[in-house]
Amino acid sequence: ILNHLAMQAKKKKLIVFQPENEISVVNMAMGLSFSGKKTMTGTSGGGFCLMNEGISLAAQAEIPLVIVEGQRMGPSTGVPTYGGQSDLMHVLHSGHGDLFRFVVAPGDAEEAFQLSGLALNVAWKYQTPAIIISDKDLLESTYSMKKLSNSKTEALLWNGKGEYSRYKNKKDGISPLAFPGDKGATVKVTSYEHDEFGIATEDQKEIKDMQEKRLKKEESLKRYLGKISCFKTYGKKISKVAVIAWGSTKNSVIEACQGLNIKVIQPIIVQPFMEKEMQAKLKGVDKIISIENNSTGQMAKLLRSHGIKIDKKILKYDGRPFDVDELKDKLMKIRWIN
Length: 338
What we know:
The chain is an alpha/beta fold. It has 11 helices and 11 strands.
């Protein structure tokens, strides 16, 4: 991503910069967003660990923040030259405290383009962290795709009237944005709990009100997501068997399921998890298989936390992607697949 954007910087009028470490990266990204510049940054699992305090700060200070997390084999330095899908739980629970984050999981280049635009839009519309969870296999593959149009970024900007309060507590939790230098606006953000003007507080009511304000944004986002699809389906539309595939496993799973009486469901928006839509996709399904590039079935854990029982897991965790023939052979050995 860094090399590609650096080559496109002049043509696309971008500023591409590589600081010394991920702590600097996340703070610099927030500083640019605070000043009104649309910004995103990328890292892998180890670097994402260093960004966690920044994610929590972005949520508390309500600063738009977009991060690409390219999973590789872990833990620690692991096998940095090979891929995996073992960071899902870490990403879903990134940052400390009760906070609201948006997480998308593209499975190919077209989805990466579209979901990156959506992540940037959500980060600015709801003034919250947004994370694009990908993996080395997708990030370093080559795809052909049709030309897509850029999505527009929505943001609630201050109209310049009256006294400006950075954290005005509105019904949907979204406060008007102003930036340093805007006429008539004193823009104060802080990592501490605060009142509507950004002044640190320890008052019980103000603490409760601000926490509820930030969480109201997630409810507003769920209403927005109710108008778009958070899951894709492939294969048999009506089947008693469903396979769950996410990220770069998608295409191998779809091809392996060809000719089999299986519905393939791909979650592309994983937080907030739109439970009702997923239940609708599973209507008529008796058995569910989760296919993942990790050793613990992290997507299966997420589904189970939403009351969705996984009957079988097919896991691969040697750093290599799923081979179609290998995958089909594993599926054919499951007794209730015909």
